[in-house]
Amino acid sequence: QLQASGGGLVQAGGSLRLSCTASERTYSRFWMAWFRQAPGKEREFVVAYNWSGGSTYFADSVKGRFTISRDNAKNTMYLQMNNLKPEDTAVYYCAADSSLIVSSIRYASQYDYWGQGTLVTVSS
Questions:
Q1: Are 87 and 120 in contact (CB under 8 A)?
Q2: Which region among 24-28, 31-35, 50-54, 109-113 has the lowest average model confidence (pLDDT)?
Q3: What is the number of other CB atoms lying within 10 angstroms of the CB of residue 10?
Q4: How far, in Å, CA of 94 to CA of 91, rounded?
Q5: Is the distance from CB of 120 to CB of 56 less than 8 angstroms?
Q6: 78: Cβ–Cβ under 8 A, 6 or more apart, which residues?
């Protein structure tokens, strides 16, 4: 139901845009999020976006460098990643859930729907 794409190899300081496409319009009521997981590390919160209200919450590590946008007609959320750093290297996953409260949005265990992941590699 969620399809993530857009990963790749980029040099430090470069940019990438990830896409997360939902298969149906019901996600208009959902929280949608990006998490990432580097080798040997736990899945880490990146950003959460409330599709109906537009509220957005970023992890401190990406604030000021990453932005969110959406295309309603395509049921797609985009993660624009600028000024990438080697420590941003990870598999990025998009996630969605319909029943979260704000205090829960940073926890991967709270999301019921997941995309397959897309690899972002940032070389130094």
A1: no
A2: 24-28
A3: 17
A4: 10
A5: no
A6: 17, 18, 19, 20, 68, 69, 70, 71
